[in-house]
Amino acid sequence: WVSIYTFQCRRMAKFRHGRVIFAGDAAHQVSPFGARGANSGIQDTDNLCWKLALVLEGGASERLLDSYDWERVYGADENIMNSTRATEFITPKSEISRVFRNAVLDLAARHDFARPLVNSGRLSVPCIYDDGPLNTDDDADLPMRARPGAPLPDAPLGDDWLLGALGSGFTLLAIDTPCPETLRMAGLDVTVLRLCAQDNPDLAARYLGGHPGAVYLVRPDHHVAARWTRFDAAAVEGALRRSIATPQGGQNV
């Protein structure tokens, strides 16, 4: 039999409805270009699982689950925008879109500058939660790619890689700056990872910029929660509490 496949780019208005939480294709649909459907579903579960586990274990209040709705609706909107652009390029819906697509393809065959304009489905990348509710305000003049809300950039550590060295919960990444060897705050054990960037130019470029040292608080899903140019216990605890939606002096349950 023969049929017609119609692309769908849409999402639910909210992903959390009380005790019912939607993720993946149940929450949003995109066109198949760029592998955004499966990848965004995995990103949904990465975002949700650590929050749900903390709530069930009594480490955070149910308010933390509201941040799943904010962050993953934001991520779904980004995926829908990029998926729609790819669909419009591949199957133009208007004459002007068709003229643009054909001109780009013609130029790309002969000129390097036009090749990045060919949109056959930009591959999915992790979402950056700029202005997310769990982010701590950032005034540190550190590299933009490692700002709060961004996925932690990976970097080589000898024969290994940085992301593989992170803990399964919250991690405090201290690079060329003093900090405690162990840390427990807001009722949570925080993994402390102390590194030296003096002989690691990749680590220095991605995390220090022009500063001699830096401290990063990393969420269990490897997104940056907060960062500073030196360790400050009160600032770290405040950022950690914000990351689990539990204010200073508030109850986790």
Q: So, CATH architecture of the largest domain? A: 3-Layer(bba) Sandwich
* Count of individual beta strands: 11
Strand order of the largest sheet: 8-9-7-10-11
What spatial form do the alpha-carbon principal axes imply? globular
Count of domain modules: 2
Q: Biggest sheet, open or closed, and with what strands and sense?
A: 5 strands, mixed
Can you tell me the residue ranges where pLDDT is under 50 for at least 5 consecutive residues?
A: none
| CATH class category name of the largest domain | Alpha Beta
- Beta-strand fraction estimate: 15-25%
Amino-to-carboxy terminus distance: 56 Å
Q: What structural class results from the helix and strand content? A: alpha+beta
Helix content: 25-40%
Q: The CATH topology of the largest domain, please?
A: FAD/NAD(P)-binding domain
Give me the number of helical elements. 6
Average pLDDT across residues?
91
CATH H level, superfamily name of the largest domain: FAD/NAD(P)-binding domain
Radius of gyration using CA atoms only: 21 Å
Compressed to H and E, one letter per element, the order equals: EEEEHHHEEHEEEHEEH
